[in-house]
């Protein structure tokens, strides 16, 4: 073997192993830890909490809507009764006016039909005595026409 | 309301000028617009309850306008009497309330402040109270409710 090495050296122009051999090693103290986990900062309340919160808000809203509906019903009742209390008063007033106009119409009819024999003023067109609302026929005087 | 129709023309306005026959005793008409009537309506309903009920029973008997003229006059006189009393005792509050109603679309809920003052004045002076029939029991009436949900939208 020694002869072979010498023979090899004699052929080559450069020395074969001029520097001592070195191995690739970790730095002193070792490598730093590898961060293979994803780093995400905290992102607020969990889904369950958000879901519960939305449910609570909606429940409160619907409760208020229901209360408001009940209140609107009472407002309607109040409005209705205020009108009911006024009905007799307004009816009495309009009845007086209706009676006045009706009498005037009957007088006009009597005046117009005075020459017709056996004419009954204000006779009902129905064969009974029940009250019925007469058709509103208005004779507008000449000077009131426009 | 009555089944009568006002003879209203689209082209001209005509009011029959013929006065009422002499056989009907004259009565002063109430002569109020809708806002004062609405403001006083619950008190009219309470103060004139007997006359109003009498009149409505009479109308139920016969719908002829001639049939209930007497009862109708009583109703109007009673309402006039009440309005006169309101004017004597709670003039300022009454005026404030109906003017508010006039401006606020005649909604009671928009004029609660004025209404409370008016109601308390009428209760003190005349002893009349606003009662809404059919209101749920065990809770304040809608006009006395504190912090209601339905509030005026504009101050």
TrEMBL record, chain A:
<keyword id="KW-0999">Mitochondrion inner membrane</keyword>
<keyword id="KW-0496">Mitochondrion</keyword>
<dbReference type="GO" id="GO:0045271">
    <property type="term" value="C:respiratory chain complex I"/>
</dbReference>
<keyword id="KW-0812">Transmembrane</keyword>
<feature type="transmembrane region" description="Helical">
    <location>
        <begin position="46"/>
        <end position="66"/>
    </location>
</feature>
<keyword id="KW-0813">Transport</keyword>
<keyword id="KW-0249">Electron transport</keyword>
<keyword id="KW-1133">Transmembrane helix</keyword>
<protein>
    <recommendedName>
        <fullName>NADH dehydrogenase [ubiquinone] 1 alpha subcomplex subunit 13</fullName>
    </recommendedName>
</protein>
<keyword id="KW-0679">Respiratory chain</keyword>
<keyword id="KW-0472">Membrane</keyword>
<dbReference type="InterPro" id="IPR009346">
    <property type="entry name" value="GRIM-19"/>
</dbReference>
<comment type="function">
    <text>Complex I functions in the transfer of electrons from NADH to the respiratory chain. Accessory subunit of the mitochondrial membrane respiratory chain NADH dehydrogenase (Complex I), that is believed not to be involved in catalysis.</text>
</comment>
<dbReference type="GO" id="GO:0005743">
    <property type="term" value="C:mitochondrial inner membrane"/>
</dbReference>
<comment type="similarity">
    <text>Belongs to the complex I NDUFA13 subunit family.</text>
</comment>
<dbReference type="Pfam" id="PF06212">
    <property type="entry name" value="GRIM-19"/>
</dbReference>
Automatic annotation (TrEMBL), chain B:
<comment type="function">
    <text>Accessory subunit of the mitochondrial membrane respiratory chain NADH dehydrogenase (Complex I), that is believed not to be involved in catalysis. Complex I functions in the transfer of electrons from NADH to the respiratory chain. The immediate electron acceptor for the enzyme is believed to be ubiquinone.</text>
</comment>
<comment type="similarity">
    <text>Belongs to the complex I NDUFA8 subunit family.</text>
</comment>
<keyword id="KW-0496">Mitochondrion</keyword>
<keyword id="KW-0249">Electron transport</keyword>
<keyword id="KW-0677">Repeat</keyword>
<protein>
    <recommendedName>
        <fullName>NADH-ubiquinone oxidoreductase</fullName>
    </recommendedName>
</protein>
<keyword id="KW-0813">Transport</keyword>
<feature type="region of interest" description="Disordered">
    <location>
        <begin position="130"/>
        <end position="155"/>
    </location>
</feature>
<keyword id="KW-0999">Mitochondrion inner membrane</keyword>
<dbReference type="InterPro" id="IPR016680">
    <property type="entry name" value="NDUFA8"/>
</dbReference>
<keyword id="KW-0472">Membrane</keyword>
<dbReference type="GO" id="GO:0005743">
    <property type="term" value="C:mitochondrial inner membrane"/>
</dbReference>
<keyword id="KW-0679">Respiratory chain</keyword>
<dbReference type="GO" id="GO:0006120">
    <property type="term" value="P:mitochondrial electron transport, NADH to ubiquinone"/>
</dbReference>
<keyword id="KW-1015">Disulfide bond</keyword>
